[in-house]
Structure formats: C-alpha cells, structure tokens
Specification:
By secondary structure, this protein is an alpha+beta fold. The chain folds into 3 domains: about 180 residues, Sandwich (Jelly Rolls); about 50 residues; about 55 residues, Orthogonal Bundle (Arc Repressor Mutant, subunit A), CATH 1.10.10.60. It is built from 12 helices and 10 strands. The chain has a 5-stranded mixed beta sheet, with no helix packed on it. Strand 5 and strand 6 form a beta hairpin. Helix 9 packs across helix 12. The chain is globular, with a radius of gyration of 20 Å.
Length: about 300
C-alpha cells in the first residue's frame, strides 16, 4: 500500500501555479505528491522523515521536497511547528536550470544521488530568508500590479540561496563517499522523471526508457523503488489520471475521448485505473468537481 498521493493544490490552474500558506503543523501523515514543496520553519520543533531518513525541524530549517518523495512531519507535543509552506510545479526549478545548469544539478541532484533535502539557515542568512518569505507572503495574500513577477523573482532568490547553502555539503559528501558509490547508485533519476513528465501522454514503457537512458530495465525499476518507493507504471498512471482529471473538470469532452487523450489504450483500462487511483469513477469525479464555463472540444 503506497502512502497517500496528492496531485492537486489550490491555485494550481493559475497562470503562475503557486500556492502558499502559514500554519501550525502538529502532525502530517506519510504522503507524497507530484509537485514541489518548499518549507521554512519559523518556530517550534519536531522531526521530518523523507524517504526513510529523519532530520530535526527547528527554526531556520528549509526543506526542498521534490515530487514523489515520501515525507512525514511530527511536531513536539508542547512546541508545534510554525511553518511557511509553498507549493509549485517542477517547471520552476527546470527554468532555473536554463539560467544556470549548475543550479539545476544541485537542486535536483543530477550530478549525483547525494543531494540535500534541507539546509539550516542562521544569523544574517536566516534574517534574509525570513524577509524574502514575508515579501512572498505579502505579494501572494494581497496581489498588486506585477505580483506574479515579484513572486517568481523572490522564489528564485530563495531557491538559489538554498542551492548555495547546499553546495559545500554536497561537495563534501561526494568527496567522502565517492569511493563507495557504485555506477548504478551514481545515476540520477531526474532526467528520467523529466522525460516521463514531458512524454506521459505518448506510448511509453520501461523498455523504452531503458533503451533511451542506457539502464537495464531491472536496474531502472530498482532505481524508482529505491528513491521513491513507487513503480514506473504507477507513476505513469498517476500522471495520466491527473491529466484526465483536469479535462473532466475543465471541459465537456466525452469521457471516452478523455481516456484516449490521456494516453490510455482503452476505456476499460482507463475506468479501472481511474477508480483505483481516485476512489471514484470518472463520471462521479466530474459531477463532484463542477465548474462553470467549461470549454468544449
């Protein structure tokens, strides 16, 4: 049984699909999602477990959680965590990579599987990060002219500082562990994840990916399981179901046509996988997610 899978968040259909909240976090059950989550601890204490590795959550900790990483947060019973939490698509990080490939590699771990999921800011840097998060929060809560530009610019500043603070630790880790890393462990899954995100509506299978990226199918399957606790086919189905949900919500397309456009080979397989993933039929999902002004196609 996989942890709960989240693939929707408020504001995700906006021109800039960014969502932010500040909340007291007591306990977050184990779950995963297919978008990025950036968290800054303001007050309180607790722990977070990401893919089985647990770290402390104290003021100044910033966590960059990538899609499909499983995580769980537990606060101290007498000192709950006060968090800024931002959700946004992986595209934001991919765009940074176009500006500087080095940023891309550090944030996604493309150079090595060893990447920091969190950093600890203190002193001047912590003050700076808190100020930037406050600016992001103000732009998000009360948007004025060019708010999207300001949001994006400040988010890029935060991600760039996260990368800077991670760089030395990643270098040290790579140097000390380089002799212990096997070729299969040194591979990053992110180029593969990105390819799947870009081509999931096309015919796609493990053999195709194996040939494209030069990894034996069994090794590729192991890579998925080791890093994300998810099988390739489940990831592919979830992306296609997400696309179908968007069409069910926003259009008046026939459900059979949505099944085909979402990459499923038959309506029966679409209906079965949709029911398994969402817990309801495609028709029931459309009824429970009404939207005025649906476009026809």
């Amino acid at each position: 049984m996989y942890p709960e899978y989240l693939f929707e968040y408020p504001n995700m259909n906006a021109s800039f699909p960014f969502y932010m909240k500040r909340k007291l976090q007591w306990k977050t059950p184990s779950h995963r999602h297919d978008f990025v989550e950036l968290t800054l601890v303001l007050n309180g204490q607790g722990t977070e477990t990401i893919n089985g590795a647990t770290h402390d959550m104290i003021p100044g900790i910033m966590v960059l959680l990538l899609p499909y990483q499983v995580h769980e947060i537990v606060s101290h019973p007498n000192d709950p965590l006060d968090l800024y939490i931002c959700n946004f698509p992986l595209d934001v990080i991919l765009e940074l990579g176009e500006l500087d490939p080095g940023l891309h590699d550090i944030l996604l771990g493309n150079a090595t599987d060893a990447r920091n999921t969190f950093v600890h800011f203190e002193g001047r840097l912590l003050d700076e990060m808190q100020q930037i998060f406050t600016m992001i929060w103000n732009e998000y809560e009360k948007p004025v002219s060019f708010a999207t530009v300001m949001l994006k610019a400040n988010l890029q500043r935060v991600l760039t500082q996260f990368a800077r603070s991670s760089l030395q630790a990643i270098t040290d880790m790579s140097t000390s562990a380089s002799s212990q890393i096997s070729p299969s462990q040194a591979r990053s899954i992110w180029p593969i994840i990105r390819y799947i995100h870009e081509h999931y509506l096309e015919p796609l299978n493990l053999t195709d990916l194996s040939e494209r990226f030069g990894i034996h199918p069994s090794s590729l399957s192991e890579l998925f399981a080791r890093q994300y606790g998810i099988h390739f086919i489940d990831l592919l189905h979830e992306l296609r179901v997400r696309h179908a949900c968007s069409l069910l919500h926003a259009t008046e397309m026939q459900i059979a046509d949505i099944a085909e456009e979402s990459g499923f080979g038959s309506y029966s397989s679409f209906a079965r996988i949709f029911q398994k993933t969402k817990g309801v039929s495609p028709k029931a999902y459309r009824i429970s997610h009404p939207r005025t002004g649906r476009r026809k196609k």
